[in-house]
Design brief:
Length: about 750
């Protein structure tokens, strides 16, 4: 009998009691009846029959009650078995090393183990008998244990509830105590959720160590590349200490262990070349703060050299290269001796003046040929340096992509510090290389102001966001007002001026505040950055605008001494007047006077208004590059942004064909690919295979006008290596309609 069909024992007893009362009433009625026509006897007989029926029914009910008791005994046994199974299940769950949690269809916690509470200590001591997952997530967010909740509790809570609702993939959470937990959630057949929580802290730490090892290997590759140069190359930083040298220096200058140690400073280099090698022109090695590259012929150790000295701005320091030209000098000497011999023969033979002129023309022709050969050699060297720049930027670009991808993950504090230090080191290398490229662009006059009407408020809002965290970290208050002023200038150069003013003010102010004020003056807007720093003596207020010039009192504070030099050049180019007011011990005020402009109504199209960041959708991207490290770095960075990424070394690879078949939203290609294939040609092949004009961009380390013209003709945007993630993301967002 099914449990639902079994009669209730109490109901049966009550039914029997009612029937007995009915039987007694009938018998009493029969006994009291006095019908003279025999009716009383008939009623008596009916009562007897009724009593027999009651007894039969009572026996049946007693039998049913007996069966009910047996069923209750079986049910009690089943309950005991279920309790035992439940105890065994809980013991099995508690034995798991991972955290375990089971939620029903109403998202209420049914079952969990002690390891689960180990990940969320805030749940200990609470009544979890009817708690929902949403309540658990809220308690975890309030405790501040998840790193994401420290940044934005509401956003972390919304993301976590969304992940739990989908329960379709594995994800990782960073905890504030340095641990990493991997969460694997699945849906049950009854509509509930089951979650497995695994501690993956050691796995994350090992991955960070592997990334650091790869970066060190790439630095070795960079040094090996410099060692392949035939010239001796050395670079001294702003403190005049050696930053890098190649093996060419050791070979050309005959350095031993002691000599190599002497070259660790610029003064040591000068002393070694003067005292040991007997250089005949020490001016070739003099330190210069500014200026262009200078080539000086010198004699060192009995051999002839061309020493090239180049001040490096804005990175700072000086670079020297030693080119051994002994053989070429010997050839020129031989040529000169031949010419002298010819002149003597002409004098001896007393030939005509025209013969002498002919001989001299011949010599001049030889000199022109030698000059042409030298120009060809110089062009060859320029092409070599361009190729070397590409090779140098390849590993740096890959390293930056890896570090940027890693930085966007939730990391433990020690790992985050390592990533930040790695990024700082990459920034230093990038600044050094970018300085070389910037010098060439300045020499070519490639930087010209782009004048436009600029609304100051968006620019100030961006600076407010950019420097708020820096000022807060230094314990300073930052006051940047809201304004409706419009000015006329170049937005990029004006922003650079204000950035450098703010950066210096925060760097050199120990306590107090940094502020910006805007005042009308002489038909323009005077934008002033004030601080409560140590101040600058009047005799030093002009010198601080020179390259690499830093005051003695600020030597211990990090910096290159180029910020204000860049400000002066930018202001001179724009024609904006600079002023500085400062009193020692009372702070400083740096200001720039910018012409006013008429306010524009089409603010939506103003280039000065920063683009709003955000992700509106996942895109499918195809990345093409012949360097596997670049592919891996780009894939890691773009996947961190939430995109689907396919990588290929060429447009005809299987990976590219598969990505095209599945559909792609954008192509990112390197310019120099294998087999003499260019990035724009690869993009054309992919577009033809896809049957449509897929948005595309090219990334290259080649900054030549030829490459720019080629890509401009193909209407393909480009970014220079090393790629800055913010620039890449902004360009992608613009090309994909705010979808990057």
């Amino acid at each position: 009998m099914a449990e639902a069909d079994r009669p209730d024992a109490g109901a049966l007893v009550e039914r029997i009691r009612q029937l007995e009362k009915i039987n007694e009433a009938l018998i009493d009625r029969v006994e009291r009846s006095s019908d003279v026509q025999g009716g009383a006897f008939s009623m008596f007989e009916a009562a007897i029959a009724l009593e027999a029926m009651v007894r039969d029914r009572t026996a049946a009910l007693e039998q049913a009650l007996s069966r009910l008791n047996e069923a209750n005994a079986e049910m009690a046994e089943a309950h005991r078995d279920a309790d035992a199974a439940r105890v065994r299940l809980r013991d099995a769950i508690e034995s798991l090393p991972d955290g375990f949690a089971l939620f029903d269809a109403d998202d209420r916690l049914l079952l969990h183990n002690e390891a689960y509470l180990g990940f969320w200590p805030a749940l200990r001591g609470r009544d979890l008998s009817s708690v929902t997952f949403g309540e658990i997530a809220e308690m975890a967010a309030q405790s501040g244990l998840p790193v994401g909740s420290l940044v934005s509790r509401e956003r972390w809570l919304a993301d976590r509830l969304s992940q739990h609702a989908k329960a379709d993939r594995v994800h990782v959470q960073a905890l504030a105590d340095g641990r990493w937990v991997q969460i694997n959630e699945l849906k049950t057949s009854e509509g509930g959720r089951v979650g497995i929580y695994t501690d993956v802290t050691e796995v994350k730490a090992e991955d960070a160590r592997e990334r650091a090892r790869e970066l060190a290997e790439r630095n070795l590759v960079l040094q090996a590349t410099l060692d392949t140069l035939s010239e001796g190359v050395c670079h001294y930083g702003l403190d005049r200490r050696l930053l890098v040298r190649n093996q060419g220096m050791v070979r050309l200058l005959g350095l031993d262990a002691r000599g190599s140690k002497r070259l660790e400073t610029h003064a040591g280099l000068l002393s070694y070349c003067r005292d040991r090698l007997g250089i005949d022109c020490t001016s070739a090695l003099e330190w210069r703060e500014t200026g262009e590259q200078v080539e000086t012929p010198c004699v060192l150790g009995g051999r002839h050299f061309i020493i090239r000295s180049t001040p490096l701005t804005p990175g700072g320091g000086m670079a020297f290269s030693f080119d051994d030209i002994t053989e070429r000098v010997q050839d020129r000497n031989a040529l000169r001796e031949a010419a002298e011999m010819l002149e003597r023969r002409v004098a001896e033979r007393t030939t005509a003046l025209q013969a002498e002129i002919a001989e001299r023309r011949e010599v001049e022709g030889q000199l022109r040929a030698a000059k042409t050969a030298a120009e060809h050699a110089n062009r060859d060297k320029t092409r070599f340096l361009a190729a070397a720049s590409h090779d140098l930027l390849q590993p740096l670009n890959a390293a930056r992509l890896f570090v940027s991808a890693l930085a966007e993950r939730r990391l433990a504090a020690p790992s985050r510090a390592l990533v930040r230090q790695t990024g700082v080191a990459l920034d230093s290398v990038e600044d050094l290389l970018e300085a070389l490229f910037e010098i060439s662009r300045l020499d070519a006059g490639a930087i010209t102001p782009a004048w436009s009407a600029i609304e100051l408020e968006p620019m100030l809002a961006a600076l407010r966001i950019e420097f708020a965290a820096v000022a807060r970290a230094e314990g300073l208050s930052l006051d940047i007002p809201v304004t409706d002023v419009w000015v006329r200038s170049d937005i990029r150069l004006l922003r650079r001026i204000l950035q450098n003013f703010l950066s210096n003010a925060i760097r050199y102010t120990a306590q107090g505040c940094v502020s910006i004020t805007i005042a009308a003056q002489e038909g323009g807007a005077r934008i002033t950055v004030r601080d409560t720093g140590p101040g600058i003596a009047p005799e030093h207020q002009e010198a601080i605008f020179e390259e690499f010039r830093r005051l003695e009192s600020t030597q211990r504070i990090p910096g290159k001494g180029l910020g204000l030099a860049i400000v002066r050049r930018a202001a001179t180019m724009l024609g904006h007047r600079l002023d500085v007011e400062s009193t020692p011990g009372q702070g400083s005020a740096f200001s720039v006077l910018v012409p006013l402009a008429e306010a524009r109504s089409d603010k939506g199209g103003d280039a000065s208004r920063p683009m709003r960041p955000g992700v509106t959708g996942t895109q499918s991207l195809l990345v093409i590059d012949n360097d596997p490290a670049i592919l891996a770095g780009m894939a890691a960075l773009l996947r961190n942004w939430g995109h689907h990424v396919a990588t290929a070394t060429g447009p005809l690879d299987e990976e590219a064909a598969e990505a095209i078949a599945q559909g792609i939203d954008m192509i990112i290609a390197d310019y120099h690919l294998d087999d003499a294939l260019r990035g724009d040609e690869a993009i054309a092949i992919v577009r033809k295979a896809a049957g449509r004009e897929v948005p595309a961009l090219v990334i290259t380390a080649d900054r030549s006008d030829e490459v720019k013209a080629t890509l401009a003709q193909a209407r393909v945007p480009m970014l220079n290596k090393p790629v800055k993630p913010a620039q890449l993301r902004a360009l992608m967002r613009n090309m994909l309609g705010n979808g990057a």
